[in-house]
């Protein structure tokens, strides 16, 4: 089985270099690593990595970058593992991934156990993430749990099941919920699972992310778009919209240092106004200046 690792990145050259170098500790080496960036400065000295990643460039946008990776490896891989540029996989991740996909032919997509997720707070340093990996006690018994969609910080896809399905480039820039969109559709062709033997730490690096207003707009526009497209579980889409609006509203009075809550709230309200006037479009964030 040929397993490639694909990493989209922008604006975090040190972070992506560490993530790529960390893959050297895998007990089962990847058959290839593809990093898709936007500008040469975003990958700095990545070409000097001992892992010898293939470095590609395309226009800005998570979906564009993921699709570019898929085109590049289409006839060379059986499974692609997409990881964020700030995700550190446990040393046996690829070995366990191969075991899972070989032993269970009906599994078309898999995600892992996130030991710690810095996306929900100020984030973890690289040193902190390594320590979290070291201290983790993996479960002794292998178990897979059914999922309706996968978490994009670490998601593996069987390419024969993916077929012509691609990430929706109408979800621009950060591509909010692009992982839900494509894997929910993928799940119509087989099983999606979360394996307790696939694990890692999502550092939650804050550099290179989209603006608060843009993200706030996407928090409403993208779920509505997916609902109309029927590519997201309705309950999940509504729950995410409600949870984000409530969180932005309550925390905007005393926002966290690392989150632009007031910007997100403005984006939420703008999207709701566009929804009420039939102008809602995920691509509108390309016209937002801040």
UniProtKB/TrEMBL annotation:
Domain of life: Bacteria
EC number: 2.4.-.-
UniProt KW keywords: Glycosyltransferase, Transferase
A Gene Ontology molecular function term of the record: glycosyltransferase activity
CDD domains per the UniProt record, alphabetical: Glyco_tranf_GTA_type
SUPFAM superfamilies given in the database record: Nucleotide-diphospho-sugar transferases
InterPro entries cross-referenced by the UniProt entry: Glyco_trans_2-like, Glycosyltransf_2, Nucleotide-diphossugar_trans
Positions of the Glycosyltransferase 2-like domain: 5-162
Protein name per the record: Glycosyltransferase
């Amino acid at each position: 089985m040929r397993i490639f690792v694909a990493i989209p990145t922008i604006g975090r050259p040190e972070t992506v270099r560490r993530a790529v170098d960390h893959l050297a500790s895998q007990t089962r080496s990847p058959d290839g690593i593809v990093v898709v960036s936007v500008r040469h400065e975003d990958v700095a000295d990545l070409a000097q990595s001992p892992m010898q990643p293939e470095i590609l460039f395309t226009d800005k946008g998570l979906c564009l970058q993921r699709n570019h990776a898929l085109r590049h490896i289409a006839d060379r891989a059986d499974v692609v593992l997409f990881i964020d540029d700030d995700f550190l996989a446990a040393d046996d991740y690829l070995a366990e991934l191969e075991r899972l996909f070989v032993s269970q032919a009906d599994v078309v997509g898999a995600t892992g156990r996130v030991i710690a997720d810095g996306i929900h707070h100020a984030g973890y340093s690289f040193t902190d993430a390594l320590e979290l990996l070291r201290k983790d006690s993996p479960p002794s018994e292998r178990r897979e749990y059914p999922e309706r969609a996968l978490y994009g910080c670490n998601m593996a896809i069987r390419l024969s099941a993916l077929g012509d399905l691609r990430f929706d480039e109408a979800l621009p820039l950060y591509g909010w919920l692009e992982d839900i969109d494509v894997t929910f559709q993928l799940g119509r062709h087989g099983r999606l699972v979360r394996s307790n033997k696939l694990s890692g730490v999502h550092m939650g690096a804050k550099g290179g992310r989209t603006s608060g207003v843009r993200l706030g707009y996407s928090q409403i526009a993208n779920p509505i778009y997916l609902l109309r497209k029927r590519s997201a579980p309705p309950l999940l889409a509504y729950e995410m919209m409600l949870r984000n609006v409530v969180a932005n509203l309550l925390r905007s009075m005393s926002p966290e240092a690392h989150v632009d809550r007031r910007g997100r709230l403005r984006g939420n309200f703008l999207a709701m106004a566009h929804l009420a006037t039939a102008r809602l479009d995920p691509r509108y964030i390309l016209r937002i200046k801040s």
